[in-house]
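Recall the central idea of this unit: under ordinary conditions, the amino acid sequence of a chain determines the structure it adopts. In this exercise we apply that idea directly, starting from the sequence alone.
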Amino acid sequence: MAARQSSPQDIVFKHTKSNQMITDLLSKADIDIGGDKPWDIHIYSSELGRRILAEGNLGLGEAYIDGDWEAPQLDQFFHKVISAGLEKKVKPVRLAGQVLKAKLLNRQSLKRAWQVGEQHYDIGNDFYEAMLDKRMTYTCGFWANASNLDEAQEHKLDMICRKLDLKPGQRVLDIGCGWGSFMSYAAENYGVECVGLTISKEQAELGKEKFQHLPIEFRLQDYRTFNEQFDHIVSIGMFEHVGPKNYRTYFEMVNRCLKQDGLFLLHTIGKNHRRGGVDPWIDKYIFPNGELPAISHIGNAIEDLFVVEDLHNFGADYDTTLMAWYENFEAAWPRFKEEMGERFYRMWRYYLLSCAGAFRARDIQLWQWVLSRDGVAGGYRRISE
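Accordingly, the structure predicted from this sequence is:
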């Protein structure tokens, strides 16, 4: 879908105090209003400046869904904005209550944990099949030696298996197993048995149907209610839904379910600092109750429970992964346009491309932690490719 072109409203935008403030901020990131650079912004509402100053990214994102502005290359727009630190210069007054709520309440309680499955993961398996790789791996790929999305995801899955040193006959727990991409790959290529936990009915149903021939089991269950022993444990792209008030509970669960000489691999997006809270737009429209951890969050939560054997950051690869998902999304959109509508299209476009821009700017990271209960005898041999 082509972006709308510049209109006289691009000029009208500059005529109020709040609009002039936004214009001045954008200029610091080499972004012009009505310009011809791919990352320049075209504005169709004189209220955009007020919305941004009042509600920050929530106002910016909702205005985009409403069609009030456009950028030909949205990923580049966000790369420029975030690299220039513009989001730190806007203090949205209307979101103060939401920040306080996030600090005081357990937004990822046992009852609320199921909301993200219903709102995000259960929108339709056919939609995700069209956007993702052939194994439906909805996490960052590893692109060091990959030329396409399928290769990047298989390289990531294989790297995880090698980091855990999987052996035939071992039993592996996957916390937040998605549609079973890791479990199916590990069972097929390393001869292990797997149990996967998910809070998405759609994921569990499709996984059970696809992988009846493999020794893997899907359970519709929250991690807090689980207690069985496994040789190794993985959690790939689920920790972002745990929340700071539950980090210690999460790692205590992993500790009690992991055999004494087993390894735990945690694959998670992370942020560069502890300050701040949730992204209000992502929280409302994409991942309700989600929150990214900082390294210090994880370090504090694993104290006296685990030894850190390895920490691997390949966050820049998420930019490439998101752009591959976006390319698939655009190619498949004609199939879903009538059912899902224009607002869903703009919402999903904003989600994929704003996140790509954030990873490109190195504002958020992708970490793989390898943890042991008491340290690997003789030391852990690092595997990074």
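The CA atoms of residues 131 and 325 lie 5 Å apart.
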